[in-house]
Specification:
transferase, NDUFAF7_sf, single chain, SAM-dependent_MTases_sf, six-stranded antiparallel β-sheet, alpha+beta, 37% helix, binds S-adenosylmethionine, 442 residues, globular
Length: 442
């Protein structure tokens, strides 16, 4: 009875929304890391619970039918992080077996050079002790492991702790297994700002937090690799001088299981976000993606660095405020229609570095450097020297893999140009950093 009533409300309401078309997905640049060259077998990770998949789709349908179309941000948040069926919440999605592969997973050189960068900037700032290494969205924990290796070597007797900001219970366990000697999940009612603790083989304490706000204050070295592209975006369009929002509605009667059960519609009037949105000066786009969540995270980071000192490094694929439509899905190393089978594919959007930089610098306490292209950064950090060292000590059968991994990270036609690095420093250091420029950025 209730279900029927909901369906009826849904039918009447959704006819009054105007459908909007998306550009051809194949025309969207394919940067969710590097697409693998060879076709991949269907991964075990994605054969995951048909039960979970269906229920997420059904949940979204029921919600839209009950309360009306939802924002792309709400859709993305549910699809990626819904505690039951969310894409990141209970499976390993990385590597050849998963849906995409990220730089730290391709070559250890990536994490090592990021570690060297952190250590050298930390030393330049007087080697403050204690300090904390914070990583947002650590995935499998590979970057943290490689950075830890370097920091442990270069810490010169300083004390530090590790703080992982991770929403996925499954991935937090994988991370702990990757770089901790012992680890422990804490009871849900522990009322602590962290939900898991661990200790590395060299005695460094590691903590897992659900939110950046929960990480204790202190001098921090902060990393975010492919974190910002996973944060929900709003899609906005300028129509007759007003910003309107693209929403997601149900398809009344999907014609086939191969077609999405959802469709894009344009909001009938301004939404809270489209009303709040303030374009940057000189904005010429009439259609763009805007991430409130990214804005919130950068603002928190900026406040932390300004108040307690530290440096931030954001690494991701993105643009400088010119792209309009990059929201897409990834499944088995190929583009995937984001409205099809929610929960079974990654959803992502290119990071707007111009927006991040503007937010970071807007309070006047932070100076950003970059963005620079990944290839440039790694080459400036002496990636080739490290490559030669590794090759000199590698088994003959591994040499090709080591070489091609480094090439994939640095070649502008592969990941070298699409991925960018943006660093953040407290602006009280401006004069000092003019004298001793930030490594890798000049
Ligand atoms: C694309 S993966 C990147 C993983 C890793 N940094 C790498 O490059 O291999 C995104 C990571 O961010 C986490 N994540 C996504 N949304 C999050 C949120 N709102 N809060 C905390 N972690 C989040 C995911 O669980 C995952 O670990």
């Amino acid at each position: 009875m209730l279900r029927e009533a909901l369906l009826r409300i849904g039918s009447r309401r959704s006819y009054s929304y105007k459908s909007v078309r998306r550009p051809n997905l194949s025309a969207v640049s394919a940067a969710k890391s590097q697409e693998l060259q060879t076709p991949q077998p269907k991964p075990a990770a994605n054969e995951s619970p048909a039960h979970g998949e269906i229920s997420l789709s059904k949940q979204l349908r029921a919600r839209i039918l009950a309360t009306g179309p939802i924002t792309v941000a709400e859709y993305m948040r549910e699809v990626l992080t819904n505690p039951q069926g969310g894409y990141y919440m209970n499976r390993d999605v990385f590597g050849r077996e998963g849906d995409f592969i990220t730089s730290p997973e391709i070559s250890q050189i990536f994490g090592e050079l990021v570690g060297v960068w952190l250590a050298s900037e930390w030393r330049k700032l007087g080697s403050p002790s204690p300090f904390q290494l914070i990583e947002l969205g650590p995935g499998r924990g590979t970057l943290a492991r490689d950075v830890l290796k370097v920091l442990t070597k270069f810490k010169q007797g300083a004390e530090f702790s590790m703080h992982m900001v991770e929403i996925s219970p499954y991935l937090s366990l994988q991370q702990a297994q990757r770089f901790c000697y012992t680890h422990q999940k804490l009871p849900e009612d522990a009322q602590l700002p962290h939900y898991q603790v661990g200790t590395t083989a060299t005695g460094i304490k590691a903590y897992w937090h659900s939110r950046l706000e929960d990480v204790p204050p202190g001098f921090s070295l902060v990393l975010a690799h492919e974190f910002f592209d996973a944060l929900p975006i709003h899609k906005l369009q300028l129509i007759e001088g007003l910003w309107q929002e693209v929403l997601i509605d149900v398809v009344e009667q999907p014609e086939s299981k191969l077609l999405p059960e959802f469709r894009y519609v344009i909001s009938k009037s301004q939404t809270p976000v489209s009303r709040l949105f303030k374009p940057l000066p000189n904005e010429t786009r009439t259609c763009l993606e805007y991430s409130l969540e990214a804005e919130r995270h950068v603002d928190l980071l900026a406040q932390r660095l300004a108040e307690h000192g530290g440096v931030g490094l954001i690494m991701d694929y993105g643009h400088l405020g010119e792209k309009t439509d990059t929201f897409r899905g990834f499944k088995q190393h190929a583009l995937h229609e984001p409205l099809l089978e929610p929960g079974t594919a990654d959803l992502t959007a290119d990071v707007d570095f111009k927006h991040l930089q503007h937010v970071a610098e807007s309070r006047g306490h932070i100076q950003c450097y970059g963005p620079v292209e990944q290839g440039e950064f790694l080459e400036r950090m002496q990636g080739k020297v490290r490559l030669e060292q590794l090759l000199a000590n590698a088994l003959p059968e591994n040499k090709e893999l080591i070489k091609s991994g480094y090439e994939m990270l640095t070649d502008p036609k592969q990941m070298g140009a699409r991925f960018k690095f943006l660093s953040m420093f407290p602006s009280v250091l401006n004069d000092y950093l003019k004298k001793y420029p930030v490594a890798g950025f000049s």
